[in-house]
Amino acid sequence: MVFGFWNLILEGGNMRRMIFRTIFLVLMSLIFVSAASAQVCVECHKKITPNIVSDWQLSKHSQNKIDCSECHGSQHKSAQDVAKVKIPTPDTCASCHPDRVKQFKSGKHAAAWAAMKAMPTAHWQPMALMEGMKGCGGCHKIGLKTEAEIKELKKGGAGFGVASCDACHTRHTFSVQEAKQPQACQTCHMGFDHPQWEMYSGSKHGVRYLLKQSKILPPTASAPTCQTCHMQGGNHAVRTAWGFLAVRLPMPDDKQWTADRATILQGLGVLDPDGKPTARLDVVKAADVARLTQEDWQKERDKMIKTCNRCHSINFAKGELAKGDQMIKEVDRLMADAILTIAGLYKDGILPKPKNYAYPFPDLLTFHDAPTVIEQKLFVMFLEHRMRAFQGTFHANPDYALWYGWSEMQRDLTEIKEMAAEMHEKHKKK
Q1: Least confident segment among 1-5, 41-45, 49-53, 222-226
Q2: pLDDT band for position 33 (cuts 50, 70, 90)
Q3: Would you say residue 8 has pLDDT above 50?
Q4: Domain spans of the chain, in order of start
């Protein structure tokens, strides 16, 4: 049938017939060469990395004749030229999945690597934790990297954490179904500062979905996943209204909350002691960790309400999300009090301001590298307990909202004030 089609086209004369036959033969030879090349890869890697081959054979890529060279190039021919293997990047995936990659690049996951690198003390961490992908880098590798960064990672022997897409669609199955499951998010979204998996899986939403996975609930049962709420319709631009840090602009009408949020922004180094923007504001913008206009915030809030409305009334959804907003206001009051307590110690000369701090305010982004016990307590209060209080509320997990969040913040503030009082007393006696 194929040859018959070509014969119809070639009825225009001998010269055209020769040209078309040549093109046809070239195309067919390329197909055969590609197939033969793929077979060589498979036969070799069946011995060296058999499970990689097995995963690829299970993939849609294999079913659609997307062979190894499509992602890894064709320069690697033997064990002696392994360095010539091309490691895929999101741009590699974009050749077939342009819309998904475009969405991904507009979301917060794409900014993860830059956000990690922007932390003031990131360079203090052991290489194994950062570039080695065993600590912060192990999750933040999902973010986009520059060509220079990729080159540096490869030079250090960590060139396998550059693909981004494989953080959720794991190699070499690259399964859509796998990435749709909430467990795909579990590796990164758990633990100290963002235990979303634990909050979700313990909430009624998560319990119902896990029961659905185990077939106790029927397939038609309503049970949202992480992806249902944060990747509506498969959109890869993962964003939230409040962002990771739960700070935003414009400031609220409530004067106390405005003052508290300003204090937190000072603790983040985004505002200076006079309330003026610093260079770090550009970093916050680049990392996309905060909504900086009402329109940007409202856009994400409306998307979430629409998602909630699939199972709940709009009034119920708005009311529940408003509780999360209110919880942020409550935790900001405690957080600001703690920040100002330590800033007061700097001001009174009781606690020396670390030399790497730009302003006489505790720097919340130094994390565990804060130099004293009282500053460490503030770091834990901000990144662990404040996060759990408001994230637990938004994720409908009462235990995290109260006992692992709000309650712990109250204890943190009590301890910080008590330590500060003791330091004031010791200072008087000198």
Answers
A1: 1-5
A2: very low
A3: no
A4: 241-429
Which amino acid, 17? R
Neighbouring residues of 91: CB distance < 8 A, sequence distance ≥ 6: 101
CA distances from 95 to 61, 85, 150 (A): 13, 18, 19
Please tell me which of 132-141, 155-164, 286-295, 325-334 the model is most confident about, judged by mean pLDDT. Answer: 325-334
Mean pLDDT of 16-28: 54
The SS3 call for residue 310 is: coil
Backbone angles phi, psi at 99, to 5 degrees: -65, -45
pLDDT of residue 404: 97
**What architecture is the 241-429 domain classified under in CATH?**
Up-down Bundle (1.20)
Give me the pLDDT at residue 30, please: 45
The structure tokens listed for 117 are 């690198």
Under DSSP, is residue 78 helix (H, G, I), strand (E, B) or coil?
coil
CB atoms within 10 A of CB 52: 15
Contacts by 280-284, CB closer than 8 A, 24 or more apart: 283/118
Listed as own residue / partner, the contacts of 381-387 with beta carbons closer than 8 Å and 24 or more positions apart are 381/334, 381/335, 381/338, 381/408, 381/409, 381/412, 381/413, 381/416, 382/267, 382/335, 383/192, 383/193, 384/192, 384/193, 384/408, 385/409, 385/412, 386/246, 386/331, 386/334, 386/335, 387/193, 387/194, 387/246
Neighbours of 205 (CB within 10 A): 23
Percent of the chain with pLDDT over 90: 70
DSSP 216-263: SS-TTS----HHHHHSGGG------SSTTTT-BSSPPS-HHHHHHHHH
